[in-house]
Specification:
Layout: E1 2-7, E2 10-13, E3 18-26, E4 33-39, E5 46-51, E6 55-57, E7 65-70, E8 75-80, E9 89-99, E10 102-107, E11 111-116
Parallel strand pairs: 2-11
Antiparallel strand pairs: 1-3, 3-8, 4-5, 4-9, 5-6, 7-8, 9-10, 9-11
Length: 117
């Protein structure tokens, strides 16, 4: 199993910054790609950014968010700058991959990010 634990969320004013962290433990060799998703009230969960061999960003966060990782710490970060009220959501860390023919998909418990106007 893999455990993913998010931290770093909270309340920030529009234009401010936050850095989310996702610490992974357990059978992390199963994970090939790490990512961040978010879900706002009444909306579907959406992909924000991923990091594997390359990085991917949703159009809505390009130029404002940066995903990075520290392999020594088994931690993935999401630096969020120029935050907007529409960035308000629960942010989830995700890890997925394949190992010995099996597909794996792991999720953190989610962390609230609230951006006030």
């Amino acid at each position: 199993q893999v455990q993913l634990v998010e931290s770093g969320g909270g309340l920030v004013q529009a234009g401010g910054s936050l850095r989310l962290s996702c610490s992974a433990s357990g059978s992390i060799f199963r994970i090939n790609v790490m990512g961040w998703y978010r879900q706002a009230p009444g909306k579907q969960r959406e992909l924000v950014a991923t990091i594997g061999g390359s990085t991917y960003y949703a159009d809505s966060v390009k130029g404002r968010f940066t995903i990075s990782r520290d392999n020594a710490k088994n931690t993935v970060y999401l630096r969020m700058n120029s935050l907007k009220p529409e960035d308000t959501a629960v942010y989830f860390c995700n890890g997925r991959g394949s190992y010995r023919g099996y597909e794996y998909d792991y999720w953190g418990q989610g962390i609230q990010v609230t951006v006030s106007s």
